[in-house]
Amino acid sequence: MTKIALVAGATGLIGKQLMYKLLEDSHFAKVYILVRKELAIKHPKLEQVITSFDHLEKIHLSQPITDVFCCLGTTMKKAKSQAAFYKVDFTFTVEVAKFAQKSGATNCMLVSSVGADSISSVYYTRVKGEVEEAIKNIQFDAFHAFRPSMLMGSRDEFRFGEKLGIGVALLLRPFMFGPLAKYKPIHSAVVANNMLLASLQDKKGNFVYEYADFEPKNT
Predict the structure, then answer these.
(1) Nearest-angstrom CA–CA distance, 36 and 34
(2) 32 an active-site residue?
(3) Domains in the chain, start-ordered, CATH in brackets?
(4) Is 124 one of the annotated active-site residues of the chain?
(5) What is the mean pLDDT of residues 47-64?
């Protein structure tokens, strides 16, 4: 079956790499990306949909989609408030998933976070858990939630705290096993590739992936 993808968050660390992987993959005939302004990239399979995530109901796609990749996300530092963070990480993400299902999608791949738990005492991981629960309730044929810890990769912006944290985590990685293994840093390209692989699987249900579930496992 020819597959058609919708990507939200194609300018982010994972979303950008995922977009390129989808464009290169022969299983996908078209890749829609939701963006606020046009990106400087051209490809015969790519269609950029300029939109505000507040008004997804105004979008009309020329073809029904099969797979949605939700890679939206911000940080509390950038959002500057819990309300602004919630709007991006929960409201926009869930609305994209709902829009995608109405547009034909049966598979949903979500970038979540290590520790995601709807009853967590930590706001960040609680919101991530709430997003997972909300998308489960949309009832896609297959829902894949990816829970990476710190992400390695080339960002457009420099984050000193994140760089420091990754450096420390890499030093400690040989000692991170058992319950601590899921906190190992992982390269964003590995997460993107695993999202693509999940979309190609012919299975139904809800699936969660943590560090030990990613391939290759030694990355």
Answers:
(1) 7
(2) no
(3) 3-211 (3.40.50.720)
(4) yes
(5) 93
